[in-house]
């Protein structure tokens, strides 16, 4: 496969599929040429039985947007997608190969919108004869053996998290302080539709919690629950297996209390005097702070910075309460939103420019 390079740098399309949105951007070198987020309504995605079935539909929307913006896709040097629920792997940039595409189609480790990223990138790259990549997928696993022990011999703790954004903001926080990611100790918390809290010890993400199955709840995920109560609910006959999984990730968290995943709507409820909303909005940062405290113990208190990121980091009500509870541990850096498209594109640029080797997925 030939490397296409324009006179003014490599041109990369980055694709970040979320549960209800597809974000994408085109970069020439480090300059962004086009950045868009398309929202998908529940109605729009209803015809697709499985999340992965949406890949052609979402890709067609991106190609339409490129045409409308006058961007010739034949000029692209590479396509990169957000990496999904793959086998556990080290952080870095991976070439999409047949094994990865097949694993994403099968969704053996579960359905997740990020599974679309590799498949969409691969589809377009194959048409254009250019390489497809993913960077720091949700299954980045840099745990040490001690972090894998769950306390029940049947089960092992797994590393599934918002690795892409947390590694990106951890790198940024280190760089902004004149340090390298691999020489500092950080705790990064991604506060989005899902919450992940992670420990970064000298460039490796050695422990995480994720509201998908552990730790703080989030706008639509329930996080840790009382084990006995959960088992009772599963066997109560009230819900099917699929419904219970949906409760853990999709209709849990704030959604289960208020029927919305939007923190701003719950904030409005609280401001209008709804006491339940005020209480649940107090519990969310309380639980995030508890996770951060636990991760500080992983580092034996040797924490350079705590970094808070994700959409909820725009909420003063939430973020100020987390800061109040954890600032005794280390200085807190707030980087609201996400750096995911940029991190995807820059991860690939490092490979195209020969600064880093692409990893092979086995
Ligand atoms: N300005 C804001 N103030 C308060 N909350 C906000 C604001 N902007 C976004 N949010 C909240 O952030 C959450 C979504 O965050 P984000 O956009 O990072 O998530 P996502 O990309 O949908 O999912 P994920 O981060 O789990 O991949 C929503 O609950 C939203 O209401
Ligand atoms: C699957 C890990 C990240 C998330 O909760 O979405």
Strand residue percentage: 15-25%
Shape: globular
Total discrete domains: 2
Let me know the average pLDDT. Answer: 95
CATH homologous superfamily descriptor of the largest domain: ATPase, nucleotide binding domain
Helix run count: 13
CATH class term of the largest domain: Alpha Beta
The Rg value, from CA coordinates, equals: 20 Å
**CATH architecture name of the largest domain:** 2-Layer Sandwich
Topology-level CATH name of the largest domain: Nucleotidyltransferase, domain 5
| N-to-C order of helices and strands | EEEHHEEHHEHHEEEHHHHHEHEH
Bound molecules: adenosine-5'-triphosphate, butanoic acid
Lateral arrangement of strands in the main beta sheet? 3-2-1-4-6-5
Structural class by helix and strand composition: alpha/beta
Main sheet: strands, sense, barrel: 6 strands, mixed
The strand count comes to 11
- N-to-C span: 20 Å
Unreliable spans are none
Family: Belongs to the acetokinase family.
Subcellular location: Cytoplasm
EC number: 2.7.2.7
Pfam families: Acetate_kinase
Question: Could you give a short description of this structure?
Answer:
This is Probable butyrate kinase. With 362 residues, this protein is α/β, with parallel strands linked by helices.
Could you walk me through the main structural features you see in this protein, from its secondary elements to its overall organization?
Belongs to the acetokinase family. Pfam families: Acetate_kinase (PF00871). It comes from Acetonema longum DSM 6540. It catalyses: butanoate + ATP = butanoyl phosphate + ADP. With 362 residues, the chain is an alpha/beta fold. The protein folds into 2 domains: 11-139 and 340-352, ATPase, nucleotide binding domain (Nucleotidyltransferase, domain 5, 2-Layer Sandwich), CATH 3.30.420; 145-330, Nucleotidyltransferase, domain 5. The protein has 13 helices and 11 strands. Strands 3-2-1-4-6-5 form a 6-stranded mixed β-sheet, sandwiched between helices. The chain has a 5-stranded mixed β-sheet with strand order 9-8-7-10-11, sandwiched between helices. A hairpin with a 2-residue loop joins strand 2 and strand 3. Helix 2 (55-68) crosses helix 4 (115-128) and helix 11 packs across helix 12 (316-326). The chain starts with 10 loop residues before the first strand and ends in a 10-residue tail after the last helix. The mean pLDDT is 95. It binds adenosine-5'-triphosphate and butanoic acid. The site of butanoic acid has 10 residues, from loops. Butanoic acid binds at residues 112, 138, 160-162, 194, 196, 210-212.
């Amino acid at each position: 496969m030939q490397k296409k390079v324009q006179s003014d740098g490599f041109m990369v399309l980055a694709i970040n599929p979320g549960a209800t949105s597809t974000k994408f951007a085109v970069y020439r070198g480090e300059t962004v040429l086009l950045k868009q987020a398309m929202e998908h309504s529940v109605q729009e995605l209803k015809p697709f039985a499985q999340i992965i079935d949406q890949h052609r539909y979402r890709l067609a929307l991106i190609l339409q947007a490129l045409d409308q913006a006058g961007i010739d896709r034949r000029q692209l040097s590479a396509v990169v997608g957000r990496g999904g629920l793959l086998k556990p792997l080290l952080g870095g940039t991976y070439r999409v190969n047949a094994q990865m595409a097949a694993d994403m189609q099968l969704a053996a480790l579960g359905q997740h919108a990020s599974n679309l990223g590799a498949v969409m990138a691969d589809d377009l790259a194959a048409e254009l004869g250019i390489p497809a990549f993913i960077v720091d997928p949700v299954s980045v696993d840099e745990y040490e053996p001690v972090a894998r022990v769950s306390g029940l011999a049947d089960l092992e703790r797994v590393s599934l998290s918002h690795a892409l954004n947390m590694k990106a903001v951890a790198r940024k926080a280190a760089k902004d302080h004149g340090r390298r990611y691999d020489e500092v100790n950080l705790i990064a918390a991604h506060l989005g539709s899902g919450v992940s809290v992670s420990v970064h010890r000298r460039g490796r993400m050695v422990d995480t919690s994720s509201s998908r199955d552990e730790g703080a709840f989030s706008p639509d995920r329930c996080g840790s629950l009382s084990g006995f109560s959960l088992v009772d609910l599963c066997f109560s006959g009230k819900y099917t297996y699929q419904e219970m999984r949906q409760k853990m990730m999709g209709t849990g968290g704030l959604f289960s209390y208020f029927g919305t995943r939007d923190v701003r709507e719950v904030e409005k409820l609280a401001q209008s005097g709804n006491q339940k909303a005020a209480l649940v909005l107090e519990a969310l940062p309380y639980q995030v702070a508890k996770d951060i405290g636990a991760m500080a113990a992983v580092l034996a208190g040797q924490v350079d910075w705590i970094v808070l990121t994700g959409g909820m980091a725009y909420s003063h009500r939430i973020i100020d309460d987390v800061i109040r509870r954890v600032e005794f541990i280390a200085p807190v850096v707030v980087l609201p939103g996400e750096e995911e498209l940029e991190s995807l594109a820059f991860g690939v640029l490092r490979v195209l420019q020969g600064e880093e080797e692409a990893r092979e997925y086995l």
